[in-house]
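REVIEWER CHECKLIST
Item 1: Sequence provided? yes
Item 2: Single chain? yes
Item 3: Sequence as submitted:
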Amino acid sequence: MRILLLPALALVLAGCATATAMHGPDGREMQAIECHGAALSPASCYKKAGEVCGARGYDILGRDGEAIPMATGYAQTNAYQGMMIQQSGMVIYRTLYVRCKDGAP
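Item 4: Structure as written out by the authors:
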């Protein structure tokens, strides 16, 4: 049962892109669009940026990301048998920094 819960939990946690408003080094407002997880492609970051900025469009200020290998496992043994379960994969982090353009398109 535990084996099935881990992948399901990972899919739930990696489900959507998020946007956070912040101020850039020049003091102007910008957005950090995060689309972490293997279930999301970089295109989901651009889609979210389009949703946040709408028809005004946006300028890309920067990108950040990394893929970190991970593995988990456990062993269970008794006097008659032994069993080891191991899962591996990648934890993916992506962030797109954008500034919405001013005015109408």
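Item 5: Key structural point noted by reviewer: The helical segments are 2-13, 42-53.
Item 6: Recommendation: ____
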